[in-house]
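Title: Prediction job returns without error message
Component: structure pipeline
Severity: low
Priority: P3
Assignee: unassigned

Description:
Job completed but the reporter wants confirmation the result is attached to the right record. Sequence as submitted:
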Amino acid sequence: MPEQPHAQPDGRAVHPDDADAVNALRSAVMRLSRRLKHQRVDESLSPTEMSVLGTLARCGRATPGELARKEHVQPPSMTRIVAMLEAKGLVRLEPHPDDRRQKVVTQTEEAEAMLEESRRKRNAWLAELASGLDEDEWAKVRAAAPVLEKLAQL
C-alpha cells in the first residue's frame, strides 16, 4: 500500500518522499551552516551582526525597521544591533532623505572589506570541501544553488 501524504500546518499535503527530502535538506543545511560559521574572519562579531552586514551588502542602505523585517527580529533588537555595529565603526547612521524622524543605516568601507575577506575565506573552505565531489555531484550543486538561494529569500 503506498504511503499517504502528510499534512502541512497550512493544510497542504506533503508526499512522504518530499517530507524525507525536507528533513534531509534541513539537517544538511544546519550542519553545513554550523561548519561555515567557524570560518569567521572577525570573532568579535556575532552571527547576527554578520548577518545584518551581509543584508546591507546585498540590499544597500536600509532603515533599522527594514533591517528588522529582513532579519526577522524585533525592531528594538535591531536598534541594539545597529548601535553595536556603529560603535565598532562598521555602519553609519544618516538622516533619512524623506522622513526626518528616521535614520538610514549604511555599511562602512571597513565593513565591506571585512565581509569580502569573510566571503573569500568561507568560499575557499567550501571549495576545498567540495573538491571531493565528482562531476555529476558538482552538476547537482550548480543546479541546486539557485533553488537554495530562492528558499533563503522566501
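Comment from assignee: result matches the submitted record. The chain has a mean pLDDT of 87.
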